[in-house]
Amino acid sequence: MMRALWTAGSGMIAQQLNVDVISNNLANVNTAGYKKSRVEFKNLLYETLVRSNDFEGGIGRPVGIQIGHGVRPSATSKLFLQGNLQQTGNTFDLAIEGDGFFVVELPDGSRAYTRDGTFKLSTDDGERILVTSDGYYVLSRDEDVIVIPEEFREISVAEDGRITGINQDGEIEEIGQIALAKFINPTGLNTIGKNLYKETNASGEAILQQNPDDPGYGTILQGYLEMSNVQVVEEMINLITAQRAYEINTKAIKAADEMLGEANNLRR
Question: Does pLDDT of 183 surpass 80?
């Protein structure tokens, strides 16, 4: 009976974490570029009361007796499924249709990666530079900042990331090219908040796109944003399931407690 208390308690702790993750998914249902998370569980060690052995000639035990000790969370993985594309019409709202990531530079000089394409123009030393909503530099394929000259108009971003505009002479001129990166294992990326990810040993090093026809990066759509891939109905079902699992574990604890009470009262 004491084993049942600990087992059901591990179930309550696991489902509480599950509800926490689902709540975070629902909270970010309108966050551009957000990727939903999922909790993965594993059962705990089993106690072998009777060990099975070879069954031969009508003698032996083909099936033993093992009792589990509950469950534990093993991982929270990101699901990098494509989110819905929302048309905004803004010049520097960019969406990736595919598996690539935009590359940004953090204040400490390190690199981060994002699917959020809500970019802006910021003035730095008199130059207009393409940045994220938090002011981080968006990098080009040559790993430099992207400067949009003030005299250029009708800025256009092609599917391969090439930025062009009409110069003072009325001619179309290329300004730069937005960098895209991909990872061998994107679920191994470290989420640092602000819609940013950093590479880890689990994700592998970022592989930057070198040629427009390199596979696995996707294409860039100007005037669109990739919204969250959270499906509200699906998350609500998962929430109800987690709540019911939590509830049934509490009932198991109550049942074990009542059984202990009955055992303690046998002498009365």
Answer: yes
| DSSP string for residues in 97-152 | ESS-EEEEE-TTS-EEEES--B-EEEEETTEEEEE-TTSPEEBBTTSSB-B--TT-
**Torsion 103-212-85-188 (CA) sign:** negative
Beta bridge partners of 252: none
What is the length of the chain? 268
Tell me the percentage of the chain whose pLDDT exceeds 70.
97
Instruction: Record the pTM.
Output: 0.85
Q: Can you tell me the mean pLDDT for 233-247?
A: 96
Compute how many other C-beta atoms are within 10 angstroms of the C-beta atom of residue 184.
11
CA dist., res. 98 & res. 224, Å (int):
14
The answer on 124 and 27 residing in a single domain is no
Count of CB atoms situated within 10 Å of the CB of 240: 11
Predicted pLDDT of residue 48? 81
User: What's the domain count of the chain?
Assistant: 2
CA angle 136, 36, 250 (to 5 degrees): 130
Question: What is the domain extent for residue 169?
Answer: 85-226
